[in-house]
Amino acid sequence: MYLSNVGEVLYLISRLDPSVQPIFGLNPEVAHSRMAGLDFVGHGTLPGSRETVSHHLNSQDTTRYDQDLPFGYMEPLKDLALCVVLQDAEWEGILAFDVKAPRTDRQEDIADILHTSAANLQRLWAKAAKVNRKKIAEFRATQRYTALAGYLAGCLY
Prior knowledge:
Low-confidence stretches: none
Strand content: 5-15%
Mean pLDDT: 88
C-alpha cells in the first residue's frame, strides 16, 4: 500500500483498532520523500513517536524514479540537518541504508555503495554533533531561516 506521505500513514494507524495499532509502524525513507517533493528533514522529528520503527537513508536525483543512491550524495546539507534532528531527538532506533549499486558498477564492486553511504553517515553525524544548537535556536527565534541554512552549509566544511 502506498500512501503519499508520513502524515497519511500516521492518520491511518490512528484509525485502526487500538488492539492492532502496535503492530504497525513507520519507516520514513529519505529518497521517497524527495521523489514526492517533500522535505524529509521533518520526518526526523518523528523518532519520539512509537510508530517510527526505522529510517531508510539514501539519496535521490529529483523525481525520476526510485534510484536508491548513496546517502549523503545529492543533498548533503539536508542530510546534515537530518542528522542534527535525529541527534536532538536522541534517536536510538534503526538507521538503515536502502541503496542499490548502479548497473554500471562491476559485480565485485557492488558493496561500494554501502561503504560510501556508511562513510557519509559517519562524517555527517560527526559534523552534526559539532553544530551549535544555541545558534540554531537563535536563527529560529528570529525567523532567519536563510541564515540558518548558511550556518549549516558552513558546518559541512
